Amino acid sequence: MILDEFIVRKFKPEDACQVSRLITTTFNAQVGRKLPSGVKKVFSEVNTSDKILELSKRGEVFVADKGGKIIGIIAGIDNNRVIRLFVYKKFQGQGIAKKLMRRLESLYKKRAAKSIHVRSSLYAVDFYNVMGYKKVTRVIHNKDGMAYQPMIKYLS
pTM for this one? Predict the structure, then answer.
């Protein structure tokens, strides 16, 4: 495991380009493979460096930093929602996403959140199950053709 080789820290504005590249690269390689190019384009447009900076001002963003390279990112809003969680493929399965998730969950718990909600990609449902999240409803398909699984975790 490489747990000691990276740190989880708060997002800094100078991370925006790396975070944008991480999100779009990982999405296109894993989640977006079977989606129409128009959907991938829309996803890329809402995850530009500028959009990531905007997100960091209205929510919480943490990154996994390995020697100055961003290898993972988690973002949440409203003190109870996870809206982004991405780790580069070659670093997956090494505890990075779990550490990012625990950091955000800990923050939300300190802020007295009773539960955390996520719209999981179908690719990530098993990960969220391992982290204690439960399916809320059936899989939902949005107007752009993306499918997601609403999930929730109750905090104690």
Answer: 0.92
> Domain for residue 40, yes or no?
yes
Q: Read off the tokens for 140.
A: 């939902």
Cα–Cα distances (Å) from 54 to 15, 40, 47, 49, 96, in that order, read 13, 20, 10, 9, 24
Higher pLDDT, 4 or 126: 126
CATH of the domain at 48: 3.40.630.30
Contact 153, 116 (CB under 8 A): yes
What is the phi-psi region of residue 101: left when phi exceeds 0, alpha when psi lies from -120 to 50, beta otherwise? alpha
Confidence label for 3 from pLDDT (cuts 50, 70 and 90)? very low
Domain count, the chain: 1
Q: Mean pLDDT across the stretch 4-28?
A: 94
> Does residue 44 lie in a domain region?
yes
> Region 102-107: what's the mean pLDDT?
97
Which residues constitute the domain of residue 15? 3-112
Residue 119 lies in a domain: no
Residues 6+ apart with CB under 8 A from 74: 61, 62, 82, 84, 85, 97, 100, 101, 103, 104
Greatest Cα pair distance, the chain, in angstroms, is 42
